[in-house]
Each structure stands twice: as C-alpha cells, then as structure tokens.
Amino acid sequence: MRTEIIIPLQVQQKNIHIPYGIDSHRYQKSPSYCSKIVWQAYYYGSGDAKVVIPGSGIISPYALPNVTFYKEYGISVVQKY
Fold first, then answer.
1. What single-letter DSSP state applies at residue 49?
2. What's the pTM?
3. What is the rounded end-to-end Cα distance, in angstroms, of the chain?
4. Which of 23, 25, 43, 48 has most Cβ atoms within 10 angstroms of its Cβ?
C-alpha cells in the first residue's frame, strides 16, 4: 500500500528573500550574510539554553567556533578550505 503525502502550496514555495549585506547588527534579520545566519540559528533556535554569547559586531566565519559559543556548547571546524 502506498501513502501519498500532500504538502500545501504555501509550504512548497520558497518566497522569503532576505537581502544580502554585511552589517554589525546581529539581532536584525535583514540584511544578512552566511556566518550571521549560522549565529542567528543558534541564538534563536536554542530555546532557553544559553548557547551563544551575546555581543555586537560583524561575525567572521572563522570566529564562529572560538568566540561566539559558550564552551559547553562549542562547535568545531570540520575542514578548512
């Protein structure tokens, strides 16, 4: 027996477009850049757990593992290019 899953059209469409830009406002969603999106994912997605150290300024990709996380929740670099 085959089960078919129907996904509503509004879920299928990717209609959120956040402008790309580098700024020092970590808590604003727009504009955004790659390492800021990662930082915000941990900040907003961790619930009540204090995973990310609050701060301000531009988030460098290489600063993510060493500066922005509390030690008990630290992340590590898998590979450098």
1. S
2. 0.67
3. 47
4. 43
Q: Are 61 and 70 in contact (CB under 8 A)?
A: no
Helix, strand or coil for residue 52? strand
Assess contact for 27 and 33: CB atoms under 8 A.
no
Distance CA 74, CA 14 (A): 31
The closest of 15, 14, 42 to 26, measured between CA atoms, is 42
Task: Give the tens place of pLDDT for each residue, 2-52.
Answer: 666 666 655 556 667 788 999 999 898 889 998 898 888 888 888 888 888
Nearest to 32 by CA among 16, 48, 47, 46: 16
Q: By C-alpha distance, which of 41, 33, 34, 25 is closest to 75?
A: 41
- Take residue 36 and report the two structure tokens written for it: 């800021």
- CA-to-CA distance for 47 and 60, rounded, in angstroms? 24
Place of tokens 């790309």: 20
